[in-house]
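STRUCTURE:
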């Protein structure tokens, strides 16, 4: 039972970490990356569809993303969706078959703004990890009260869950330090 509880808590924490990494991948660093467009969805026959499912994307040079839609008529729809994604601040252009997305140089002010966004996402990830810890600890307390676990086992599980929490929080700190450095790098 002890392993099941710890495993469950760890799974919740890992899911929070995956979401955090995905969120950070979408924050611009001044270099082109197809992950910047991971949040862009287009209206594809009435369904909000991720861009990577209706087009191939590549990064032929450090400041350019090239998008080749699988269907020609999607070009204006994709351009509109990219422009609508205000946090990206990108301006696509097309030649009738592909969309070119030049990535402008980041200003110092924009870099600081992205750093704030990254810190906010880090805080959200810390909250998600702590929430998983709280749920796990509440479950342990309830199980001890029901008599399914001894108090010693409960304390041991509590310590293991706390160590997991500390490990994940430290990992978040490491990731955000790296991301901030990446964003501020000119």
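SEQUENCE:
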């Amino acid at each position: 039972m002890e392993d099941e509880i710890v495993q469950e808590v760890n799974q919740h924490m890992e899911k929070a970490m995956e979401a955090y990494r995905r969120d950070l991948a979408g924050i611009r660093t001044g270099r082109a990356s197809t992950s910047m467009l991971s949040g862009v969805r287009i209206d594809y026959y009435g369904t909000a569809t991720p861009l990577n499912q209706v087009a191939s994307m590549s990064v032929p040079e450090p400041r350019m993303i090239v998008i080749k839609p699988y269907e020609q008529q999607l070009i204006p729809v994709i351009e509109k969706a990219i422009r609508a994604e205000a946090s990206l601040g990108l301006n696509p252009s097309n030649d009738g078959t592909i969309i070119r997305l030049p990535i402008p140089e980041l200003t110092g002010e924009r870099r600081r703004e992205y750093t704030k966004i990254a810190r906010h996402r880090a805080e959200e990830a810390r909250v998600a990890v702590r929430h998983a810890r709280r749920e796990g600890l509440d479950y342990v307390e309830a199980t001890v009260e029901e008599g399914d676990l001894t108090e010693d086992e409960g304390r041991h599980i509590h310590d293991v869950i706390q160590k997991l929490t500390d490990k994940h929080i430290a990992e978040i700190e490491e990731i955000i330090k790296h991301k901030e450095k990446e964003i501020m790098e000119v």
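REMARK: The mean pLDDT is 88.
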